[in-house]
Amino acid sequence: MKKLLAFVLALIIVLSLPAVAEDEKTQLSFIRIGNDEPERLYWAWVIEEFEKANPDIDIQYEEAAIGDPIETVLNTRFAAGEGVDIIGHGILSVAQRVEANHYMAIDEYFESWEGKDDIMPAVLANGTYNGHVYGLGYSVTPYVFAYRIDVLEEAGIEVPETWEELADAARELTVKNDMGEVEFAGFCYPQTGGNLVELDVFVYGNGGQYIVDGEPVFGGNEKIAEAADFLKELLPDVNMTYSSNEVNPFVSGSGAMTLINNAALTTMINNPEYDGKVGIALPPNNGTNASFCGCNMLFIGATCKEPDAAFKFISFALSQESTLKRAEMVKIPVTRQSLVEEYAEMDPWNYARSLCVTYGTGMPRVTWSTGFQTVRNEFSQNAVFGGMDSMEALEKAQKDIEFKIEG
């Protein structure tokens, strides 16, 4: 009896003691871009599971909306010498914040990471700058080629894989009224908007690039001109006028095919009216498999005092288990090659989404990326919709971007 009593008392004492005293824990601050609920729930899961496995580390999580809110928080904290230990941010932040000494190069950590050979090369490229790895992608937003299965099948048209096939299908599927106005678009393409990455899909699909070795190459670029000329000839016959900031006519049921952010297609896919009627594929190209793909990554702040612990959290968040959990909770494509087949089993269109990530290129990782966006949009307006000769528009774009870089 005495032995039993002693055991019970000892057990009570052990259970009453914390596994790790709070003042002995490593505290890591973590701020993520965005304030959407699915992401919030996912990160709550990650942090809970990570802290269970690492009771000596405490993750202090917060989030800030896209745009000025996230930039203001980060700029203020780094200016005050506080910084942030772990940062979830996008491609456009890479060059600017590396040059501002806000992000830590993680080459040594990356080389020892079990996933270094598994992460998709296109995803890894987004966080690489001047030959060093700074960020690892956790969230990808590919542009997909979406099409109406029912409309194509009724017309006896196969899903287009080339520009020529796209043009033929779009013209055949377009419906116009008596005044010649498009009532049902064969192919939906935005004329204006904040970031006209749809043009990028055609440029990359033609084997073209806007930037080579960190320098703009608009002037005299035949690959870009060919993409613009193809769209200039096609769109007046098959398209409706709309902005990328507005609802794509395809989503509202007024189009047969389009290029669209995978996430923006969710409402249509979940709409019972279009159940089984929407398909997804890699965008048609002119010889080069390509798409546009945005990416948010995890970075370690340059002022982080516990980088080992910070990378331990990053590697946990990017593990196979966490990546698949993310695909289930947030409906975001996987970023690891070994998980593509398992991801495809979750949804019949997930393999196509993975292809768009695999062949996706994000925004340029240059300090003048905002200027690039402005110049590229203006070129699109001039060459595709404005009637300006494509080569002349490219020369203007080259001068404009060089002025922005110098000034």
Question: Could you explain how this protein is built, in words?
Answer:
By secondary structure, the chain is α+β, with helices and mostly antiparallel strands. It folds into two domains: 25-141 and 294-358, 3-Layer(aba) Sandwich (D-Maltodextrin-Binding Protein, domain 2); 143-292 and 364-406, D-Maltodextrin-Binding Protein, domain 2 (3-Layer(aba) Sandwich). Helices cover 44% and strands 17% of the residues. Helix 9 (197-205) packs across helix 10 (222-238).
Q: How many domains, in number, for the residues? A: 2
Largest sheet: 8 strands, mixed
Provide the residue-averaged pLDDT: 94
User: CA-to-CA gap between the ends?
Assistant: 85 Å
CATH architecture of the largest domain: 3-Layer(aba) Sandwich
Low-confidence stretches: 1-17
Please identify which CATH superfamily of the largest domain we are dealing with.
Periplasmic binding protein-like II
- State the shape: globular
As a whole number of angstroms, the C-alpha radius of gyration is 25 Å
Broad structural category: alpha+beta
Number of helices: 17
Enter the CATH topology name of the largest domain.
Answer: D-Maltodextrin-Binding Protein, domain 2
Broad CATH class of the largest domain: Alpha Beta
